[in-house]
Amino acid sequence: MMRLLLVVVVVLLLLVLDVASSAALVGETCSSSSSCGTSSSGGLRCTSCIPPPGTGPAVCARTTPIDPISSSLPFNRYSWLTTHNSLAVVGTKSPIGSAIISPPNQEDSVTSQLNNGVRGLMLDAYDFNNDVWLCHSFNGKCFAFTAYQPALSVLKEIGAFLESNPSAVITIFLEDYTAAGSLGKVMAAAGLTKFLFPVEKMPKKKEDKWPLLRDMIAQNHRLLVFTSKQGKEATDGLAFQWTYVVETQYGSDGLAQGQCRNRGESRPMDSKAQSLVLMNFFTTNPSQSWACGNNSSPLVTKLKACYQASANRWPNFIAVDFYMANAPFGTYDMRRTPSPSPSPSAFAAAAPPKTSPSPAPSSIMSSAASRRQVSEREGATTTIAPAASSSSSINNQRSFLPAFILMGLLVLLL
């Protein structure tokens, strides 16, 4: 009986190994994300950006997020990957049954975005259908055909992620069309109040400083929420964005080469009264093909322009559409020098680069790896943007040794 039981166990193990070995590998051609395996296959997805659209078949790629390995710098010394219109996901159907006509800006859910390294979310909140809804709408009103989902459901996703990732820090930017008190109530209902960074602790004066990231984590102040509507600090406990953030012009108007001008609501980009910098990098009409070709070296060029326009400060938040879309060799390693005003100095494929005196990126990586920002003084690593790994940068060979061992064991048992 015992021998029969062992035989059954070995056969089951062989079946598991066979399933694992049949999973798609990074760089293999695919027709859809399902052909790259399940979610347990390590985040594989089917992407048409590698190779560039029109130059070959789509292949399986993997997103590898990297969070800070050190948190000993102030919060405003980090840069975070941010998704524009995070809620506007391809293929979403409105819970109220209406077809959504608003164009999508992202490919996957908010939970997937967070799992893939996104740490900044841009959401549009409206009073709609006797509740607070996330809509991608116009004229300050939400309609059935622009209503993606109730805010509560997405906020609960964020709360669940914070619960299961105790060192993660998330920032939400709200384009706010809600009445006073509405957002505070839905935040509380989602269980997010305990994570909120207190408004009274935010640096309101130029001489005020952000706390160290590790202190924010230790105190569980791991959710920062900025609203575009003034007066919500008193009614909802939410920070007024323009007191703390300068932001670039959004959409195609903000993509002019060599320029980095502020949007209308923001103070000028070089205003030191605001301690955080948000850079937008997306077209007015969302385009996956544009993201494929530009969420790489053109983005780095924009970063250089914004560094200079923002009083030698690198953006803390880099907002993009279709964050998983980037051209091959479009990933980068942004390194900060030990100077008081840190700046990227070099880009490298593998070995740590030497620090360059140049205040801007100097070259693009020659292989696809995770994009991360590193402080050489503190060793802090934080996600800027995850990347699709190419077949040339990863060992794609499967190991069949465990299968042979188990087959030998099965022969002995029989």
What is the averaged pLDDT score? Answer: 75
Q: What is the third-level CATH name, the topology of the largest domain?
A: TIM Barrel
Global Rg: 23 Å
Query: What helical percentage do the residues reach?
Result: 10-25%
So what's the CATH class of the largest domain? Alpha Beta
- The stretches of 5 or more residues where confidence is low (pLDDT under 50) are 2-22, 328-414
The rounded distance between the terminal residues' Cα atoms is 12 Å
Count of distinct strands: 15
Main pleated sheet: 10 strands, mixed
Strand content: 15-25%
Structural class: alpha/beta
Helix/strand order: HEEEHEEEHEHHEHEHEEHHEEEEH
CATH architecture of the largest domain: Alpha-Beta Barrel
- What is the oligomer described by this structure? single chain
Can you tell me the overall shape?
globular
Pfam families: PI-PLC_cat
Keywords: Signal
InterPro entries: PI-PLC_domain (IPR051057), PLC-like_Pdiesterase_TIM-brl (IPR017946)
Signal peptide: 1-22
Please give a structural write-up.
The protein has about 425 residues and is α/β, with parallel strands linked by helices. The chain has 2 domains: about 80 residues, no CATH class; about 325 residues, TIM Barrel (Alpha-Beta Barrel). The chain has 10 helices and 15 strands. Strands 3, 4, 5, 6, 7, 8, 9, 10, 11 and 12 form a 10-stranded mixed beta sheet that branches. The chain has a 3-stranded mixed beta sheet with strand order 13-14-15, with no helix packed on it. The chain has a two-stranded antiparallel sheet with strand order 1-2. Strand 3, helix 2 and strand 4 form a beta-alpha-beta unit. The longest helix is centred in the first third of the chain and has 20 residues. The N terminus and C terminus are likely disordered.
